[in-house]
């Protein structure tokens, strides 16, 4: 019989060394905070990367850390100043709390806060546990008709919302998205919701492209092992975007995709780097210059992104259910990580330790 | 540790009813807060509304006397345990409104629009800076450049207002700008426009001596209107200053109906109008002109992210000088004299010294 008040936690000690530990239940420390019972958590490429390599860039695992950051849960306790949620509310959790005082925070770019405390980015513990505390304003109430499992997809959807907003997509535009993993697929869906009429999904895996075509892409494209310029020319011809795409989003991080993107985007168009791969690559800078391309980085999500993500799901404009390949029990978390690493399915969810 | 420091403060309990009283020393309760020994407080048009009418929208109540003042400078007296950017003794300009930091407008970078903004001298409970000591969060306190005096530090607040106006207007190199009103805000809008590279900066006012000051301070030209219709005045401004198509931007710092109308008529097609001045809540407005000329009109309220920093940058780089606007000083006990002076239109910026003992 499953425990109902467990704070069993999935902990990364060092690469490939994970343990399950019953940790003390977290306590609310601020009147603006809430305590959440975690229902479902999705696995992201970044989680797998920490599990494999113990670091991403300058974030290095030094001490054991709870993994996971894409979660939905239920409010079980509220601080004395909490007004927007109550006990029993089902919420999608925005897992990063900024300092609220620095220049980027005050200017509305809290995703760029240098003191951001982000779940499962060392040294901050993640959400693969029974309970988690958060500030009230980083919890977004799910409408009754949106399930908690869909709630766990709000995080990657908010990433896609942020990327797509950076791409400045307007109705009637043509958009190309490199990479048909969860973020790429969701970017296609958000671009469509923003009014793009041509949405091209690009990937090297035929099964992913097949899914993209059934999901939100109007066209798909499989690049070959030829120079980026050639792939770009063929793509534009095949999908009927002769002048170039208004916006190109890279959700792969792969060098050939990034290079192809700059040849695919039209003069004066926008290119957004969402995917993370090699830190340094060969980049077609002359092409960017001569076509006056605007290239923007995109990092996590900021003001209004989570809210819009919930609204898109609530209104039926983006279907996140379709991306859920499997939900496994908490005890099977390690196997789930191995499966994601092996490329199994699109999005795997891990049920919280108290889920029946 | 309970401080036995006295904190003389200037209270208002209704129109015409102000006195020096005592308030508790504002002990630090939050680790990011600082306590400032107030050096100078400036008088603003809004203070006059409080002095004569008890307030603008929300009014002070005799049951809850309110400490007045919001344009202030001082020296850091005490710092909270998490304060890292300021030290005791630092000379600072104060941004007198702290937002909640948690709501949507706050997290989107428009904290001036926070519904829970705690702004100095706002009824019913938010006390102002006319006291010996004032407490505020560290990040709303700005260290003054070494050569900027505490007196000049008071002008950082209206300079930040002017910066906010000009940023909303997106004033750029080469643009022609018309500014209605040559009080403190109008004058500082002219100075900021100049620093941003505006070509023609025309100050409009009914008062000839104010216009003369504007011309010496930052305006490239001036205009003193007669009792004409707004279309006629607009036509005369354009003719006098060779503005055939009209101005790129109008910064409205009076709130007066005829100025607002004139501003719409003097703008070029596609121009930008910024409403900074506060006057009558409802006015006659040439709406079809706005439509046909595709004018962008924006409300403007106080200051937000980056305005204080940019204002200080202008002072530090000496591209704007504010000393010239300081007209008089009174001691703390004579605060109402300063208010009367301003009410009568004497001087540009009248200052009140903080309590000396």
UniProtKB/TrEMBL annotation, chain A:
Instruction: State whether keyword NAD applies.
Output: yes
Q: What is the recorded name of this protein?
A: D-xylulose reductase
Organism encoding this protein: Hyaloscypha bicolor E
> For this protein, what is the EC number?
1.1.1.9
EC top class named in words:
oxidoreductase
The keyword Transport appears for this protein: no
Q: Which PANTHER family match?
A: SORBITOL DEHYDROGENASE
Q: Quote the pathway field.
A: Carbohydrate degradation; L-arabinose degradation via L-arabinitol; D-xylulose 5-phosphate from L-arabinose (fungal route): step 4/5
Job description of the protein: Xylitol dehydrogenase which catalyzes the conversion of xylitol to D-xylulose. Xylose is a major component of hemicelluloses such as xylan. Most fungi utilize D-xylose via three enzymatic reactions, xylose reductase (XR), xylitol dehydrogenase (XDH), and xylulokinase, to form xylulose 5-phosphate, which enters pentose phosphate pathway.
Which GO terms label this protein's molecular function in UniProt?
D-xylulose reductase activity; L-iditol 2-dehydrogenase (NAD+) activity; zinc ion binding
Q: Which residues form a coiled coil?
A: none
Residues in domain Enoyl reductase (ER)?
A: 13-350
Cofactor entry: Zn(2+)
The text of the family note is:
Belongs to the zinc-containing alcohol dehydrogenase family.
Q: Which GO terms describe its biological process?
A: sorbitol catabolic process
From TrEMBL, chain B:
Family note: Belongs to the zinc-containing alcohol dehydrogenase family.
Per UniProt, the keywords (alphabetical) are: Metal-binding, NAD, Oxidoreductase, Zinc
Q: What CDD domains does the database record attribute to this sequence?
A: sorbitol_DH (cd05285)
The protein's organism comes out as Hyaloscypha bicolor E
Name of one Pfam family that matches: ADH_N
Q: Where is the Alcohol dehydrogenase-like N-terminal domain?
A: 31-145
Q: Which residues form the Alcohol dehydrogenase-like C-terminal domain?
A: 185-316
**The organism sits in which domain of life?**
Eukaryota
Which coenzyme or cofactor does it need?
Zn(2+)
Would you kindly state one Gene Ontology biological process term found in this protein's UniProt entry? sorbitol catabolic process
Q: Which InterPro entries match?
A: ADH-like_C, ADH-like_N, ADH_Zn_CS, GroES-like_sf, NAD(P)-bd_dom_sf, SDH-like
Keyword Zinc listed? The answer is yes
Functional note: Xylitol dehydrogenase which catalyzes the conversion of xylitol to D-xylulose. Xylose is a major component of hemicelluloses such as xylan. Most fungi utilize D-xylose via three enzymatic reactions, xylose reductase (XR), xylitol dehydrogenase (XDH), and xylulokinase, to form xylulose 5-phosphate, which enters pentose phosphate pathway.
- The molecule here is called D-xylulose reductase
Lineage at the top is: Eukaryota, Fungi, Dikarya, Ascomycota, Pezizomycotina
